[in-house]
Design brief:
Helix content: 40-55%
Shape: globular
Order of helices and strands: EHEHEEHEHEHHEH
CATH architecture: 3-Layer(aba) Sandwich
Strand order of the largest sheet: 4-3-2-1-5-6-7
Length: 183
């Protein structure tokens, strides 16, 4: 089980890529986001692996002496990052997503692949249903999420999504703009 929040503790979840083959600017943005979150006193929750941007998040949290909780399904144990402050084990990927969001006040999607998109859209859906109470944020580095923004706007224009629900997700373009949302 994930530890209970202590008085005044704030947690954010970071969804991100497990790929090692991405543009370095995305990993640099991840470092900046983690540094900002640590400086603001947030506990970071992530996928907790050594792979791709998840590994960068883990490395940077350790470098900042931040508290970092990794949530991994047992079948991914070989990828566990050694610097995690705490590890939460799950049986399935669905359980992993639920545990990652648990007790967080913001869910941040960095540029990532299909798994990140799944985590982001599920979290937005839960926010729309008033189940997830935190902020939903997608860091739009160099327009990475522009196609998603266009799709969500298309959904509003066609009546598939109401404008109140569309407003539940923010798309800051820089780590600095994202940090402002966390203050």
């Amino acid at each position: 089980m994930m530890s209970a929040l202590t008085e005044g503790e704030r947690k954010i979840v970071i969804f991100c890529s497990a790929s090692n083959d991405i543009d370095p600017k995305f990993n640099q943005a991840a470092r900046e986001v983690v540094r900002a979150a640590c400086s603001l006193g947030y506990t970071i929750v992530s996928g907790g692996t050594v792979r791709g941007t998840m590994g960068v998040v883990s490395d940077e949290a350790a470098a900042c002496s931040g508290t970092h909780v990794g949530v991994l399904p047992r079948f991914m144990a070989v990828y566990r990052h050694p610097s995690l402050s705490e590890t939460v084990w799950t049986d399935t990927m669905a359980d992993r997503k639920e545990k990652m969001r648990e007790g967080t006040c913001a869910a941040i999607a960095l540029p990532g692949g299909i798994g990140t998109l799944d985590e982001l859209i599920e979290t937005l859906t839960l926010a729309k249903l008033d189940i997830y109470k935190g902020q939903v944020i997608a860091l739009n580095v160099d327009g990475f999420y522009d196609p998603l923004i266009a799709l969500l706007d298309h959904y509003v224009q066609t009546g598939m999504l109401d404008s109140r629900s569309r407003a539940l997700i923010a798309f800051p373009r820089t780590p600095g703009e994202l940090a402002e949302l966390l203050k």
